[in-house]
Amino acid sequence: MKTVFVVGAGPAGLFAAQKMAQAGHQVIVLNRDIKPGGLAEYGIYPVKDKMKIGLRKQFAKVLSLSNLHYFGHVPVGSESAVTIDDLRQFSPAAMVFSVGAQGTKSLGLPGENAKGVYSAKDFVYYYNQLPPFASRDFSTGKRIAVIGMGNVAVDIIRWLLQDDPNRQTEEVVIVARRGPFEAKFDEKEFAHVQMHLDRQLFQQELERVKDKIAAVGQDISKVAEATFPALVKYPDQELVMPRLTFRFLSSPKEIHAGPDGRINRLTVTENLLVPKNGGTASKGTDQTADLDVDTMIFAIGDVHDPKLGLPCSRDGYTTRPNPEDPKAPVFEVFDPKKNEVEPGVYVVGWARRASDGLVGIARHDGEVGAEKVLHYLESAPEGAPVSPQAVQRRLESKGVKVVTKEDIALLGKVEEREAQKRGLVSFKFSDDESMLNAIEKEKSNACVSAD
């Protein structure tokens, strides 16, 4: 039996850990957050309780393996209490990083540090109550610009239009650099917000960009059947306020702030649509327009965090493709400075390819990566035995309050009682201190009951 460290406890990490533990190895999972689940816990839309409850049951089954150990509340990184070099001191046979894509893409725009300007990832963490984002200021105003046309953007729109308990929203405008045929959201997801679409303004917007999209052979009359089927399915839908509008062929150019430091205007560049590699691309022009908005949320994808400590390039943590099959997924970390693969170090899930698929794809990627690790372990040096208890003591000596899988079970009981008390399907604490206190209180109550 050899020991593998898995850093990160989202779907990719947990299912990779399960596969390696079931193969007979000792697996120690280190997670930044107190609770396991990653984006399955803190990225799925809040009211999708059935999906979340099902995934939590699967994760609990993974954690129940006796040779799998869980240490939550343990951030790993070059600027954290625990570094990758600290983990190497235990001489694990392999390390698997499934930390997702925790970096933030910068817009690179003048004024982007204005108040009221947020990345989509951070905003999703906020309304899904991930500490510390849940306690930060993500206040929104009356007219909100959301940059992007994917499913994440639609989730955010749904929150702004329907479920935000502090909602002041009067209008959400989706700003898209390309046209209506390039919308990437699923029909099922858009159906949740289609009643807010101001159809009159939408038709005016289609008319505004009609000639530009015709230049690449797109027919404006086909938009409904191609990317906005709600227009056909619900032809008599009355507008439900707050309203949803679109601004196509527009890219953010400059953010303007008012006297209070908060965004009050967004200048966009007017784009053309041009053919590219069988598809389309946007091309900026000299024309601009101003949108009066008091909040801006940009959903433009995710990037890896170089502060983790793995070799990192502009494209993410570095791996070297197989020259015999360049399209095959590569999980082994490659150090370009040494020009060699780092033996026994792997990336899986979004840590391998940012923003690539949802839970099912993340699970598959983790399990395929685990197969690569198992193959490596067949010939890897045995190494000295790694004691989970010694690992926990070392972590705690660095001032880290470690949360074990037994603690997670206790926290689950507390949250279940809180949900019942409040008449909710589920409940979760929004800050680490409350979770840690709940765990300690549950332990104390258990001791008193035992006495």
General description of the model:
The protein has 451 residues and is an alpha/beta fold. The protein folds into two domains: 3-102 and 303-403, 3-Layer(aba) Sandwich (Rossmann fold), CATH 3.40.50.720; 117-298, 3-Layer(bba) Sandwich (FAD/NAD(P)-binding domain), CATH 3.50.50. The chain has helices spanning 11-22, 39-42, 49-63, 84-88, 120-127, 151-163, 187-190, 199-214, 223-226, 230-233, 359-377, 388-397, 405-422, 432-450, and strands spanning 3-7, 26-30, 68-71, 94-97, 117-119, 143-147, 171-175, 243-247, 250-257, 263-276, 279-291, 295-298, 312-313, 316-317, 332-335, 340-347. The protein has a six-stranded mixed β-sheet with strand order 3-2-1-4-16-15, with helices on one face. Strands 5-12-6-7-8 form a five-stranded parallel β-sheet. α1 runs parallel beside α11, α5 crosses α6 and α13 (405-422) packs across α14 (432-450). The chain is globular.
